[in-house]
Specification:
2 copies of one chain form a homodimer. With about 450 residues, the first copy, chain A, is mainly alpha-helical. Chain A contains 21 helices and 6 strands. In chain A, strands 1-2-3 form a 3-stranded mixed sheet. In chain A, strand 1, helix 10 and strand 2 form a beta-alpha-beta unit. In chain A, helix 13 crosses helix 14 and helix 15 packs parallel to helix 20. The termini of chain A are far apart.
Chain lengths: ~450, ~450
């Protein structure tokens, strides 16, 4: 009865092994299931796998599995197929569902229209409460599979949405009053092309179980229910996490994504970052003479550039996540920049101070360059750290704004990308500071 | 009516400015609101800010605002206060709510018990459908604020949960049948101490609007509704994102977190990583002689360690996210390790090949070391990249398992932490490879 006791292990194992099985083995595995298991299994496959499996089955079987799906799931499946394979499958549906599926297919998968179902309960504003209740009861008993009867939508003849009445309200109202008098007119509806991330934000803000979707003229098109939104929120969080980790988002669970597909998703960004990282070699080549004269400068290269990368990664994380939650908008860039300037200075001072004492207390071989060399090197490290951390913080916090401004996903301001950007400039900052502060020592070493 | 048209700007601005206002200004700003605005504003404050505001109000006002909250929200508020401030506030509640709040306060905020409400609809199994409907109707009309009437829970006299009947089912059933015959007995319930992340997974898997919470003996304690879960999922994703970005998770929206609080949350990890990063200086100090002899080796340090960090960040992202979604468990570590071994080899080969050709095609000053030097250096870079990427991939994918095994949050295997770990070992790999392959050139340079 409790979750822990309810684990249909064989199905789970089949699901987990699915991506390594050949097409023939998948078909065979599927045929081994009894009809109840097969239904549960088919329902838990991704739309992509459902489509692949369906196309392996005989045409007469396809009809059964396709009709078994809710219209929005059927749409997801059809969208996985090539354009020319769709009409044959569409024709397997009964006429009403076929119409509905065709309408839903016009929407992008990740907007309100693509998430919605058109099976919602509707009444007219001039019905009485009693008429509305018995009208709804008739629908419930007749077996029309409404997505929810908990909200009833009040539509004019032209389909314009004029009010919503919760079933609970209807249930607790005197039977002779018109629906118009008990309905809520101050409701929230979402436009059909609203991005699913924003639909999720509206759900979180208004705490409702379902949201009506309307077109530009206020005509009701369908409802999105909150249970679909939990999936959306998790999906978006996974996508953002993958992008932030510096790889193309996987569409499928990690263990069910094929080896070559994973390598491809990771190699793309890794190679790009590598090519960008080559600039660090060019930057360092400019300072090859200083390095040859004072090799101990090399020792702190990784420490300094890593500090810039780490502070940049913190800043970009905060801004990306705040943007995803609609807490920060494009127009807030200046507020964020001012804050991050202060934060970067504070964090830079902390690391700079620690760096200074690290050098002064444990000078190692650097003491050999004379008594003045140690504090000067300490100062070089401290000032470089300060500047690099400040620079990293500003780059990390502003890059998501820049990406969004360009119409790209701010989550692409990944930890690796910010680190790579900061690496090159961090090296330049470090060696310029060194060239300036250690001029005397460099001359002595050259002489 | 649509979302875009419904922006109560003054409240939003007050909320955004809240964290910069002094206590006195907050109180004054709050007093300026009319009563309807004040209620909306109070409800949209975090529990932390609600508690702070409440304690500034006069005791007779406190009663009003506290009673205005749903029991679970009141619990959140009380948990923000010191132990000794709670009894006085608890005594302001009416006896029934006080009892409920006291029970809920025994649960941790982030487990099923801490999320649940005890205001659910309940019937006995031997009632008829008609009796149950009119019993529920009486409750709805009497104004008892049930969390949802859409599921009715069927309890024995000892509070054991024996079935669930959706209102829809009840509504569509013949009135004379006993509830026992129409209720669903194959339902999902969650234990009261189940972590909220797992509760969210159960919602996503079973697509229900509410889940019953039961104790070890199967007695029903309350329900968790799906609208609370959307918040939980977003909250958990934010926490994980912050940790992965290398900072302590913020509890409040970024723009509403105070400056010093943000600096503190970031400085902790930044300093730790900095101290860890100091090991890179020690590692490099071991190779100071090689660097002095062949300064061009320095040029590729940032490139090589960044490649290790980037591939590690990709691997840890994938594993952390898959763990958060329950797609990967502790016992899967070996499967993941094998996959990542293959992936690391593939990615390392790609970067190694590019690195090799980078050196051979644009040798720069390195050609000065003789005709054999260029391909040997190319090989050094290629082999180092290969090993570092493989090592980064393995560290990045296994660290989350290690953290979870130790009872820590796998999301702490952040991009910066993995990069820092890989930096030190990357340097050692690089210089050992160089010492081995470039032995001849090093000898010639030393001679």
């Amino acid at each position: 009865m409790e979750v822990s006791e309810r684990t249909p292990i064989d199905l789970d194992e089949l699901l987990e092994a699915w991506w390594v099985l050949s097409a023939a083995d998948r078909l065979e595995g599927f045929r081994l299931l009894d009809s109840e298991q097969a239904e549960e299994f088919f329902a838990s496959l991704s739309a992509h796998d459902q489509a692949a499996l369906l196309m392996m089955l005989a045409p007469q079987e396809r009809r059964f599995w396709l009709r078994n799906l809710a219209p929005d799931d059927a749409v997801d499946l059809l969208q996985e197929l090539d354009e020319d394979e769709r009409p044959a499958l569409l024709s397997l549906l009964d006429p009403a569902t076929r119409r509905e599926v065709s309408v839903l297919m016009a929407y992008a998968e990740d907007e309100a229209g693509g998430l919605m179902s058109s099976r919602f309960a509707r009444v007219r504003p001039d019905m009485t409460v009693d008429e509305a209740v018995s009208y709804l009861r008739k629908q419930a008993v007749s077996g029309v599979e409404l997505e929810t009867i908990y909200y009833t939508y009040v539509l004019e003849l032209d389909q314009r949405l004029v009010g919503i009445v919760s079933f609970r309200e209807l249930f607790a109202s005197p039977g002779s009053r018109p629906v118009r008098d008990v309905m809520l007119t101050d409701f929230v509806a979402v436009p059909e092309d609203l991005d699913q991330e924003h639909v999720a934000r509206v759900f979180a803000e208004y705490d409702v179980l379902a949201l009506p979707v309307v077109d530009a003229a206020g005509r009701m098109k369908g409802i999105v229910t909150v249970d679909d939104i939990v999936d959306v929120v998790e999906e978006e969080a996974t996508e953002d996490a993958h992008k932030f980790g510096g790889l193309a988002a996987l569409e499928m669970p990690y263990l069910r994504t094929g080896f070559f597909s994973i390598v491809r998703k990771r190699a793309g960004w890794l190679v790009l970052l590598f090519l960008g990282g080559m600039l660090t070699a060019n930057a360092l080549a400019q300072f090859e003479d200083s390095i040859a004269l004072l090799p101990f400068l090399t020792l702190f290269i990784p420490l300094i550039i890593a500090s810039g990368g780490n502070s940049g990664s913190q800043a970009s994380t905060l801004v990306i996540r705040a943007m995803a939650m609609d807490e920060v908008r494009l127009r807030d860039w200046w507020r964020v920049a001012r804050r991050e300037l202060g934060t970067g200075l504070a964090l830079g001072s902390v690391l700079g101070t620690i760096g200074f004492f690290r050098i002064v207390l444990f000078p190692g071989q650097t003491a050999a360059y004379g008594p003045g060399a140690v504090p000067l090197l300490g100062l070089t490290i401290a000032i470089s750290l300060m500047c690099v951390v400040l620079f990293g913080t500003i780059v990390g916090s502003m890059l998501p704004f820049l990406l969004r401004r360009l119409g790209l996903d701010p989550a692409s301001a990944s930890a690796p990308l910010v680190a790579t950007l900061v690496d090159v400039s961090g090296l330049v900052i470090y060696f310029l500071t060194a060239a300036f502060l250690l001029k005397g020592i460099l001359h002595a070493a050259a002489g």
